[in-house]
């Protein structure tokens, strides 16, 4: 049975793996995610290959604190109350800072960011020192993984896993355009 919080030794190993350009699987509020260091293009390419997903779609970034995400987005034109209303928990599509690489934002001028309350995500990004890529752990067209057995069925044992429980949500996070308030995914 998976615990609520990851062990410190496991966090150190996963952070070293991320910094070395590796890909990991980890639980979020509703589904398992695949993650990597967003500054490492090769790592993101590996995720996209595993998922059979095109780069132009862009990927989401996740962290346990707003400060861990702020280097990627601008609050220009975003009502401060909107950030407060949706974080933590909801994925917000925000204006991307100029230095955000195309492999993160895809064909967009924005970046999708979620501040999470999940204890595993919070511990992982705190130990890592910033946001990580977050995309559902599945190949294109498959259901997102909701348990370790499905992770292993989809990707085998070659991806290290953060051993912690999923949160209580039944679906991936809602996505909202931070500028307009429009719901992009329920």
Write a short abstract of this structure.
The protein has helices spanning about 10-20, 40-50, 80-85, 100-105, 120-130, 150-155, and strands at about 25, 30-35, 60-65, 90-95, 110-115, 130-135, 175, 185.
What does this structure look like?
- The protein has 186 residues and is of the alpha+beta class.
- The protein has a single domain (8-185), classed as DHBP synthase (Alpha-Beta Complex), CATH 3.90.870.10.
- It is built from six helices and eight strands.
- The protein has helices spanning 8-19, 41-51, 80-86, 102-105, 119-128, 148-155; strands spanning 24-27, 32-35, 60-63, 91-95, 110-115, 132-136, 175-177, 183-185.
- Strands 1-2-6-3-5-4-7-8 form an eight-stranded mixed beta sheet.
- A hairpin with a 4-residue loop joins strand 1 (24-27) and strand 2.
- Helix 1 packs across helix 5.
- The mean pLDDT is 91.
- It comes from Acidithiobacillus marinus.
- Its main location: cytoplasm.
- Keywords: ATP-binding, Cytoplasm, Nucleotide-binding, Nucleotidyltransferase, Transferase, tRNA processing.
- Belongs to the SUA5 family.
- This is L-threonylcarbamoyladenylate synthase.
């Amino acid at each position: 049975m998976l615990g609520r919080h990851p062990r410190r030794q496991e966090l150190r190993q996963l952070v070293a793996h991320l910094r070395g350009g590796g890909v990991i699987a980890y639980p979020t509020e509703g589904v398992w995610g695949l993650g990597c260091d967003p500054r490492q293009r090769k790592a993101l390419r590996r995720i996209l290959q595993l998922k059979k997903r095109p780069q132009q779609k862009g990927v989401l970034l996740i962290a346990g604190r707003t400060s861990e995400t702020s280097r990627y987005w601008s609050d220009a034109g975003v009502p401060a109350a909107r950030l407060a209303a949706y974080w933590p928990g909801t994925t917000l599509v925000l204006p991307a800072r100029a230095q955000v690489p195309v492999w993160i934002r895809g064909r967009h001028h924005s970046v999708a960011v979620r501040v999470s309350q999940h204890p595993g995500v919070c511990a992982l990004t705190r130990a890592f020192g910033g946001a990580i890529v977050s995309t559902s752990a599945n190949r294109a067209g498959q259901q997102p993984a909701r348990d370790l057995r499905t992770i292993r069925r989809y990707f085998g044992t070659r991806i290290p896993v953060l051993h912690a429980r999923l949160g209580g949500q039944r679906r991936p996070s809602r996505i909202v355009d931070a500028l307009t308030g429009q719901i992009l995914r329920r």
